[in-house]
Amino acid sequence: MSSRGDVLTGKFIFVLMLLVLFGSDARLLAEQQDANNKKDFFEMSIEELMEVPIVVSASRLPTRLQYLSAPVTVITAEDIHYSGLTTIPEILQFSPGVDVRRLDRQRYIVGVRGLFGMYSDRTLVLIDGRPATDPIHGTTHWEKLPILIEDIERIEIVRGPVGAAWGANAFTGVINIITKKPDQCLGGLASTTVSEFGDTYTHLRYGHRQGQWSWKVSAGYEDVEDSDAAGAGRYHSSSYTATGFDSYTARDWGRLWKFDTQAEYRLNDVTRLSFGAAHSSAQEGDFEFMGYFPRRDVLTEYTRLFARLDHQFDNDTSGYIQWFGNFWNTHCRVITEQMRYLQNDIEGQINFKPAENHNISVGGNVRWNRIQTDNYSLISENIVGDDDEYWGGIFLMDRWSVTNRLTLEGQIRVDHYSETTTDWSTRLAALYALDEQQNHILRLSFARAFRSPCLILRNLNFTNLSGVTVFTPTADVHNEGTYTLEAGYSGKLSDNLQLNVDGYYQRFERLFGLVITPDPPPPPMVYATFKNIDGANAYGVECSLTYHNSKGRLTAWYAYNGLATDQIDQSTRSFPPASHKAGLTGRVFLNADWTLNSNYVFQNGVPYDPSLIGGLHSFNRLDLTLSRKFAKGKGELVVGVSDVLNETTDPVFEAGHFTALETPGRMLFARLQLKF
Amino acid sequence: MIVLVLALFVTPFVPKARADSTVSREYQVKAAFLYNFMNFVDWPEEKSSDSNEPIIVGIIGSDPFGGAFEPVKNKKVKGKNVVIRRFEGLKEQKESDENDQEIEAIRECHVLFICRSEEKKLKKTINLVKENNVLTVSDIEGFPEAGGIINFVMEDQKVRFEINVTAAKRAKVKIRSQLLRLAKRVVEEEPSDEAKS
After folding, report:
1. Domain assignment of residue B37, yes or no
2. Minimal CA separation from A574 to chain B, in Å
């Protein structure tokens, strides 16, 4: 077995080989890229040409950031690139109103404005508008998303319910990961990141255009060492009376292969077909749950497919129809031999202008989820059972430019879910420009949305290994509901200074939580059921100030996100938001070749949730990177330090864990990237 | 690892294309903007009635675009072909038949990009086409104030544009609200007397 030093030496030799092989051809590589850029421009919209952040997640139609009916933060490809980070949750944590905590070397819990946890689906996660949420657990397995970091065009974070645009579960917010299209990826890319702990993240991509076809292929490999190897990993027990946890060994490693390809075929100037296939294959170490390790040496295969037809009928009418399928198969060695789902969805949308200044979109979708679990030996019950779920939704939205200054937007959507009921969502917004130049825009909005409990919350049926807790299925299930009132201001204070302020009040109804019954007393035998318990009130304000010029940009932000449940100690089987969050992100282009990037975030601690065993620690995190371009900008070397301020990160006791482990904090890394 | 090794050995043999280095990136982007503008502008019936007639983009003065419009050759806008025509600047000498023909050709354009070489004759050039339903575009400072319709400006090393809606109305060129929303500045003023002549 080779030592860690040998592994690192080997990786650096590999990086050096890349440098030598590609760097020698740098001039021609530069010319290739220029040629590709030239072709690109005529395929780009005006918004893309302007590099104006254009957002689709608030209303399913491309809209300028300042004119959205909901508060949105956009993380651009440039932000992602210069951060040097390789995981999406780590990138998200530097944005206002987003709660992120790290469970182990690979896993994170993420939520917009709180109510988040590993098994929480209150924040809807999408990739190019297609869901990336596991319908069994209702969560997003961030580390297994078949997407490579450098393939992300931008990430749109919508704060607040936008169920009228995206249906159920866009409850506290939406995170929509927009990937680069083939025409944006012409040429080749080779990128590899190596950390001081021996982690590697390698991405190879090639995009090409020929005639009416354009395509890109990305492939990557990620190797995450466990916390022990990274100098941390000490286990903590949620029960101070328990013993033996000191002997646990953190095996939170991961080996992931990722593959993503997309192709576009332009039938003519107005019709385009696009296809995509993405796959991730993950092998991972341990994950403690309810006192044992259901995820010991887990193998997971995750495939995402889509086919989409876009058509421009005339200048004012466009539409698309698409099919997508998400297919998941986890092979666990402890609880279930197989846990798989097959998700098929057909969706369509048409946009038209029936009258001057009205932009209307109508559409809908039908979805079929087939869920199958095959049990293994230790537990005889079927944890969640097999299930066929059906969804159907239709939506209508109108964006009406009443005057040059006043815009009204109305959205309504009705969804039927076979496992609960028919429910509806809406968003109504008024946007008013205070000045003729439309530099200062006020927004008032109201929204309603709902969330349908996922399968594991409805059907969980098992006894934990210790035999003291019996989970029983929920007999009476209702959707969680929410409505919100929002006010916002977006102001261009000068050519270089942008201020955004958003305030909200959000009411939650029938929140799901864990009800534990000591029946018959005395314990230790307890019965647990997830149920709709009671509501909560949330309120807050998020503001950001951005200064930019040709030398760089600096953003300072602050968010207050408060949440109070109706009952004292009410279980929401999720964490409330960190009430105070602040961030400072900056980037300085020192000259044409050198770039210094810095990201800082603070999130305060979160008190205990009775269903979650433990609370959350407060944390400060500072990341620094320095980038150096070479070979006419086609090569780049990045060196960075993530989490400068902490040697280790405190453990997070998430739902159902009796143990949690500290994870490494400060980490040196280097990335070499070449375009050709 | 196999993929990496394969990539290392295969990629050096991938054929390389050569770029047209004579055209700056700025004007490649501006060419694409011009192409996009045509989708958001409606010309009056007399200018657009014949579906077989192409949309004509004129470039007057010292052309900075070079071959930037090459990709447009195979494209259509609103179902019509796009034709690029290049004109020398307006001449100072007395009008001749040849000059008259060129003026008529300029007036036939749907879009006229007025190059920086024409700065001193800006007002004259605008006046030449103001009755002919021509979308005038330039990147000369003060172009909207001089009666031009769309002006490119650079901001933070990115291309932005300003629109003079009064000039557009006068030219009977209808600019859609989607385009107006994206403008850095929307101007509603008549050409000033002080404007460049």
Report:
1. yes
2. 40
